[in-house]
């Protein structure tokens, strides 16, 4: 497995396992156990996913030493603000049954993100989280945020997949040394991703699945990818991407699939901002 080194020297796995939308607690726990068994060391959750306790149970049962794992969680909008962030972080540690996180993110660019970031900076300096970052920050918001804070986010978790390749964003992130992490690398199967002829052809060429091709494409761009599945065979398959490499022609073919359009929604849509900002999290 390959890693990417953050600006503070922390090594983060390029291939991670996400648990978004795995709401059944038993299923979430079993999936994380299977992921760790398959070789995954980066496990990504969030307070809003409501499965931190299940992830924590899986970590305890995995038999893998805590220091070998890279655990990420995220702060929800309704918990933004200095004091509420500290309390939410403490609750996350309790549910995950760990003493520290490897990465803690602001889940959305809404609410009192500056108050929250002051709290995250303190948690980082105290060693309670090895790195801090943001999620869903478009480049204009990201640059403004960087210019007005002491610690630059180590990671920005954004939508990246063959239909939204974020080339312009990659350039800005590189300029500020912020690592890009991809959520929904498969676009949740939308736009016919798993049956795309070009991706299938590349897969046949390397004797790999479309999912493996997409994950390899991301990691070869130094983008950390978060794949999700509850199927043990697919979990193992999605991790098995290190024994082949896409060539220049493969990368060119995939590049041509870019529509520069989200498969989901815009974080600049006022209706979406209102919906996310009004969603109060109860834990």
From TrEMBL:
Transmembrane segments: none annotated. It comes from the Bacteria. Keywords: NADP, Oxidoreductase. Residues 21-257 form the NADP-dependent oxidoreductase domain. It comes from Alkalicoccobacillus murimartini. Pfam families: Aldo_ket_red (PF00248). This is Diketogulonate reductase-like aldo/keto reductase. The keyword NADP applies. InterPro entries: AKR, Aldo/ket_reductase_CS, NAD(P)_OxRdtase_dom_sf, NADP_OxRdtase_dom. Gene3D superfamilies: NADP-dependent oxidoreductase domain. Belongs to the aldo/keto reductase family.
């Amino acid at each position: 497995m390959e890693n990417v080194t953050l600006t503070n020297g922390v090594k983060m796995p390029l291939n991670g396992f996400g648990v978004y939308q795995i709401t059944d607690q038993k299923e979430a726990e079993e999936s994380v156990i299977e992921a760790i068994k398959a070789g995954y060391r980066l496990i990504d959750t969030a307070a809003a996913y409501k499965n931190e306790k299940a992830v924590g149970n899986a970590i305890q049962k995995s038999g893998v030493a805590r220091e070998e794992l890279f655990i990420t969680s995220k702060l929800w909008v309704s918990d933004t603000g200095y004091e509420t962030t500290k309390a939410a972080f403490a609750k996350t540690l309790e549910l995950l049954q760990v003493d520290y996180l490897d990465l803690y993110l602001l889940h959305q660019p809404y609410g009192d993100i500056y108050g929250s970031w002051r709290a995250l900076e303190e948690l980082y300096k105290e060693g309670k989280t090895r790195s801090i970052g943001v999620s869903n920050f478009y480049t204009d918001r990201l640059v403004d945020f960087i210019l007005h804070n002491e610690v630059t986010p180590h990671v920005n978790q954004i939508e990246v997949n063959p239909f939204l390749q974020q080339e312009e964003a990659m350039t800005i992130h590189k300029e500020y040394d912020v690592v890009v992490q991809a959520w929904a690398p498969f676009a949740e199967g939308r736009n016919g991703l798993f049956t795309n002829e070009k991706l299938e052809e590349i897969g046949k060429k390397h004797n790999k699945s479309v999912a493996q091709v997409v994950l390899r494409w991301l990691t070869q761009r130094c983008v950390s990818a978060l794949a999700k599945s509850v199927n043990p065979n697919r979990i193992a398959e999605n991790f098995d991407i290190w024994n082949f490499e896409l060539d220049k022609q493969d990368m060119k073919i995939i590049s041509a699939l870019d529509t520069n359009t989200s498969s989901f929604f815009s974080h600049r849509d006022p209706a979406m901002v209102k919906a996310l900002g009004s969603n109060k999290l109860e834990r």
